[in-house]
Amino acid sequence: MCFKFNKPVVVEPENTFPQSTEIIELADLHTLLMAAAPGATIHMADKWKYLCNYDDVALFLAQDQTNKAEYVAEEHDCDDFSFRLKGQFSIPGWSGLALGICWTDNHALNCFVDEAEKLMFIEPQNDTITDVLPNIRMIIM
Q: What pTM does this model have?
């Protein structure tokens, strides 16, 4: 069962491109994710990623419309929101960021690794960013 979140008012800043330039190699990213989410299954596709600048992610979220979609249980719920947001980030200039999808026992959302090498979480239904998420069981980046 997924959770439903209320939608906040979205501010729409000017278009921007990420300022993230610090690269993390696949092995180092895997080690970092395993330490942040012990016991989770980790899937990664690329040899390296850019560590995310927090402000880049926040500005992208402010421009993105994923959080405005209607929640429909079992039809357009948490996993659909998380895949859509990951897809929005999967464009030239942004797709190299260490940003993905994660699951707990009962919820799907997005995650990223910031420049301090900390695993952060995005609730794609309301664009909330947090650094705490219990019971992570899978991460795809």
A: 0.87
